[in-house]
Design goal:
By secondary structure, the protein is mostly helical. It has one domain. It has helices at 3-34, 41-67, 69-72, 76-102, 106-134. Helix 1 packs antiparallel against helix 2. The longest helix is centred in the first third of the chain and has 32 residues, at 3-34. The radius of gyration is 16 Å and the shape is elongated. The two termini are 13 Å apart. It binds protoporphyrin IX containing FE (HEM). The site of protoporphyrin IX containing FE (HEM) has 28 residues, from helix 1, helix 2, helix 3, helix 4 and helix 5.
Amino acid sequence: MKFYHILKSAHSGWRYLVLILLVVAIVTAIAGWLGKKPYTEGNRKLNVFTLIFVHIQILFGLVLYFVSPLVEAGIRYWKMEHIAMMIFAAILVTVGNARSKRVEDPSGKHRTIALYFGLGLIVIIASIIQMTMADPSRSFFGVS
Ligand code: HEM
């Protein structure tokens, strides 16, 4: 198996961990925000963990970008849109986590995570949907 194929499968499968962690972190943050719950060490760890998993996915993607024949072929979605949207989503998650540290009150911390991680998730989902339109052989829940 070539390096490209291993990396492609890793990047393809890692998306599920990213999506699951984002959903869990967002649901937890909304529950904490609306339920006026304390911001626990567990909450902080979940959010940092989610951030790290998003960053690992970006690293897989960045390496893939230089070895994928699709980028080489100059296909617009892979060359421009995928990287731009995914990096933007990762910036939202990174900024959200950083800002949550600076907010004092627990409900504000939960709200910051819910909003930034929520927006990041929407951008990721939009980009994956766009991928299935740009390349009909791909599906939202496929693994390649
Ligand atoms: C949160 C961030 C990201 C997510 C959730 C994500 C998700 C995905 C998904 C679902 C695929 C299709 C896999 C398949 O069809 O099985 C894919 C492919 C790809 N991604 Fe990402 N991606 C992210 C970030 C990035 C970044 C930042 C880059 C580039 C710098 C990148 C480069 C690529 C490339 C080049 C492919 C096509 C690989 C190929 O089939 O040759 N990704 N990504």
